[in-house]
């Protein structure tokens, strides 16, 4: 028997008929007339090239070909049901994996957001990579993750960047710095201060340098650190001023170890972006996380 193109509809009908072995009862279950049913089954027999059943009185008997078609039909329909359940599970976020990469400064807020999201969708497993800017851009290039969180987004990346949260950059000084009490400090008054800046390639550093360059102020960079924590400790310890995201300093500012200076032009208002590769088809879970970020209820 060579069976070529049975339709799913025909297979479904035939599996019901094979269960009831009675045309009227099968038609009732399928909400069809017995004659509509027998047309479909006749077409299926023609496709199969064999009769699929024999009728003796009111009772139907499946032929060997009919048994085989019924078995295959049941298998196919079960597989389709399983597929439907799997897709539904993904759509309903009962399960699935979310691969995220976030830039170092985002570790001050992103885990909290991820936590809120996971509480709402308990079946999701999150893989989180925290990395510096170069690694994040490399990972994006290699398409290793679903979504990337970064501040400064380069123009030439092959991605879609959606801003979702403010990332204000502020000038930090030790809590007891004389400028801490002053307001409307002109940027040029900072030209003789020692600065502790983030490393080359950091989005924070890039923005700070661009700002002071536009103001014609040459910063005295005393130290360069690749960690926000190290920068904060050095500022708190009196070794210099810095520019960091306000997201990084809540605890220190409250404790009074670090002051935010009222410098004209600051805070520099920037945004955190959720980024994904341009032609990437986001998974249902990733799309949901993207919507969650953009809705902003966290
Ligand atoms: P970074 O991150 O300063 O930690 O590199 C912020 C950004 O991407 O702008």
TrEMBL record:
<dbReference type="InterPro" id="IPR036388">
    <property type="entry name" value="WH-like_DNA-bd_sf"/>
</dbReference>
<dbReference type="Pfam" id="PF00126">
    <property type="entry name" value="HTH_1"/>
</dbReference>
<comment type="similarity">
    <text>Belongs to the LysR transcriptional regulatory family.</text>
</comment>
<dbReference type="InterPro" id="IPR000847">
    <property type="entry name" value="LysR_HTH_N"/>
</dbReference>
<dbReference type="GO" id="GO:0000976">
    <property type="term" value="F:transcription cis-regulatory region binding"/>
</dbReference>
<keyword id="KW-0804">Transcription</keyword>
<protein>
    <submittedName>
        <fullName>RuBisCO operon transcriptional regulator</fullName>
    </submittedName>
</protein>
<keyword id="KW-0238">DNA-binding</keyword>
<keyword id="KW-0805">Transcription regulation</keyword>
<feature type="domain" description="HTH lysR-type">
    <location>
        <begin position="6"/>
        <end position="63"/>
    </location>
</feature>
<dbReference type="InterPro" id="IPR005119">
    <property type="entry name" value="LysR_subst-bd"/>
</dbReference>
<dbReference type="GO" id="GO:0003700">
    <property type="term" value="F:DNA-binding transcription factor activity"/>
</dbReference>
<dbReference type="InterPro" id="IPR036390">
    <property type="entry name" value="WH_DNA-bd_sf"/>
</dbReference>
<dbReference type="Pfam" id="PF03466">
    <property type="entry name" value="LysR_substrate"/>
</dbReference>
